[in-house]
Amino acid sequence: MADELKKEYFPKQSQVEPGLQSQMTPIPEDGSASYTGHGRLENSKAIITGGDSGIGRSVAIAYAREGADIVLNYLPEEESDAQEVKRVIESSGRKIKLIPGDLKDESFNQKLVEEATAFLGSLDILVLVAGRQQAQTEISKLTTDQLIDTYTTNVFSLIWLVKAALPYMNPGSSIITTNSIQASQPSSFLVDYAGTKAAIKNMTVSLSKQLAPKGIRVNSVAPGPIWTPLQVSGGQLQENIPNFGSETLAGRAGQPAELAGVYVFLASKDASYITGESLNVNGGEDN
Ligand code: NAD
Ligand code: MG
């Protein structure tokens, strides 16, 4: 698929956060037309946050095609995107349950894991993809509400979900977080967001050390510029949208489908000797 992807000039477009994939032009590639499974996650049970759209949606579709049963979390406003993922996954012959809810609410994180494990029967893979990004060029306009929302969604919920999920996770299971190239190359207009992504990368290492004795691996994925709803619902400055991703060695933005393979790999037995790592998928932007 990647060979067919050309540099794209995206039309300027804006949605209210969190945005819908179905309303984007062009619609991001989620892998539903291209991903072929090879039984690498046969009968695994996975919770995926942010699974309605963008990167999380591609991960969900790929996991189902690799043989996993899935619980998806997303925000209630994203129900239509989530229903589309459910249709694709059910047509792959796997089980999926949709559990909408706000990860900023600590008690919801516990409820999500309880409902998910009741449905799945066990839990092998916890994939934390949900995140928020709102561009703000002036620190004087960076409100306390924005700071709290960004840190609560991206950082606090990571701890709350891992705490809730651990009692259900056995040796051999795995946790995958999502950081960003912003963790190491922060943009001037993403002061709060970039900080959360650096925190996630760092926390992934701490957790890998703490959970290794339990046989649980903890890794992270660091995407570069990927064409998703987050970018067009306040995450990116409007003037950057037409050439979004063109600064990479690939010369273009990535599609969500191009991230799925790395999340499959990190969850699979192929990655049994990998923990505490962050894998870059960024078109060579960091070189
Ligand atoms: P996306 O908008 O498709 O996904 C983000 C998802 O986060 C939303 O679909 C939503 O369901 C979820 N979310 C946000 N706030 C939430 C809350 N309070 N409660 C529950 N769910 C909530 O965009 P995406 O780009 O696929 O983002 C996925 C992850 O990838 C994010 O963590 C983002 O920071 C990271 N990332 C994206 C890029 C990029 O260029 N798109 C680059 C680096 C990292
Ligand atoms: Mg979404």
From TrEMBL:
Descriptive protein name: SDR family oxidoreductase
- Polar residues compositional bias, start-end: 12-25
Q: What organism does the record attribute this protein to?
A: Weissella paramesenteroides
Show the ranges annotated as biased composition (Basic and acidic residues).
Answer: 1-10
Q: Which UniProt keywords apply?
A: Oxidoreductase
What is a GO molecular function of this protein? oxidoreductase activity, acting on CH-OH group of donors
Q: Where are the transmembrane segments?
A: none
Matching entries from SUPFAM superfamilies are given as: NAD(P)-binding Rossmann-fold domains
* Start and end residues of each stretch annotated as Disordered: 1-38
